[in-house]
Known about the structure:
Blueprint: H1 34-44, E1 57-66, E2 85-94, E3 109-117, E4 120-127, H2 140-147, H3 158-167, H4 172-179, E5 193-194, E6 199-202, E7 208-217, H5 226-235, H6 239-249, E8 255-264, E9 290-299, H7 304-309, E10 322-323, H8 328-345, H9 421-429, H10 432-445, H11 451-464, H12 466-485
Bound molecules: NADPH dihydro-nicotinamide-adenine-dinucleotide phosphate.
Amino acid sequence: MASEKLTTTAGAPVPDNQNSVTAGPRGPILMQDYQLIEKLAHQNRERIPERVVHAKGWGAFGTLTVTHDISKYTRASVFSKMGKKTDLLIRFSTVAGELGAADAERDVRGFSIKFYTEEGNWDLVGNNTPVFFIRDPLKFPDFIHTQKRHPRTNMRSPTAMWDFWSLSPESLHQVTILFSDRGLPVAPQYMNGYGSHTYSFWNKTGERYWVKFHFKTMQGHRHYTNREASKVIGRSRESYQEELFGAIERGDFPRWRMQVQIMPEVEAEKTPYNPFDLTKVWPHKDYPPIDVGILELNRNPDNYFAQIEMAAFSPSNVVPGIGHSPDKMLQARIFSYPDAHRYRLGTHYEALPVNAPKCPVHTYHKDGAMRFFPNMPNPDAYYEPNSFNGPVQDPSALEPPIRISGYGTRFNHYEGNDDYGQVRALFLLFDQGQRQRLCSNIAEAMIGIPQEIIERQLGHLQKVHPDYASGVRQALARLAEENAAAPSVAAE
Ligand code: NDP
């Protein structure tokens, strides 16, 4: 097969792609060599700002197939009938590491889904854990600073992490999950996904329900211990990409069972815990998970950069039938995610092919950098209201009001809030082996941090369960003994 002709970006044929244009046989290069200049200039612009959090990611396309009817809770078109299939994109990620970080590191994993529905894109920007470290977005930038590099040493700082966590006991639930077996999955297909926040559903008659989303792995949970992961990282820093990309290439498509927990609107004021607090789960016995459908990944991206690096997910992308909740962390993300995308990708990031909805898009937004798509059908209708048959609002998409007393007040969400009970429920689910690994993982992560911070954190663990605190204390003592016995580097 004859090859295509190489061209410049303006489409002109490139006559020579081996020799730059010079003044003579031994140089120098002439400035008129626009092909060389174009090539070098493009190379300088091959990187865009990496995400401050969730920089390293892996993703693929797939479908959601509805297997159970939940249309009495929501009018969302994606759930309108049994057997309905909706195209989707998932990007998995780690939180703290930069773009070049190793995949098999202990960290929370992002689990972001973009459903390309008939009424616009619905993004569920979740994690592989049902809770998060904090419940108020005012603490988010500080928390992320503790996960990133120290300003002077330019290294990650266990002292900063444990200092922050021990001063923020609401983090204990997520910290316990992070240092448990599930904190280090073997690959994306072996972990659950959770919407984490409370969202809402609203149905055709305007009734609202609060909802939590769950995606249960159908491959089974598989995790690495710290030892196993360090061996994997020694062999490959891209183990997740290998596992996920490889499985889909082989036709071994990963699947998850999608479930929801549903809470009637008025019950939100009666639960003993705040159902909008991101550090809490809804116990399954109170709100049993309901099956919804099967999510499958079955197509790898053709261009990683264009389809995964430039994929932009935002909790602000909801569709009729799905709404937000008073969760403060969710509300901050509704602002923060589109803000990050405008900075990283530019004003028209939603028009990039991977982000563009599959349904028609009609806005009156105008101009701006990289306005690469054409006018709406009628160019005279470029403002609203107008007399030129331009697009108009659709009152049928109006969401019912949120009926929560005191909505909009600045409450104290720390005083009297139990940060220990649900962690205890989780600790009690662990068998002896899981408890032992949890305690050693925590002890290993505490190496070298000030004793005062260790004691503060042990005080929190004691409130969860005496075995939790004593387990970490014993693991710390064991590590100290091992370190004392080990020959120093200088002696080797
Ligand atoms: P359940 O006994 O019904 O616990 C349900 C959840 O715990 C299941 O989703 C299960 O996930 C998960 N789970 C079981 N074993 C482990 C483990 N070793 N590590 C992590 N998660 C595990 O009780 P509750 O609903 O009252 O929850 C008890 C605790 O379980 C909570 O405090 C929370 O920490 C944790 N949890 C609860 C979830 C919820 O939505 N209620 C969701 C996930 C965790 P799976 O089915 O995949 O095995």
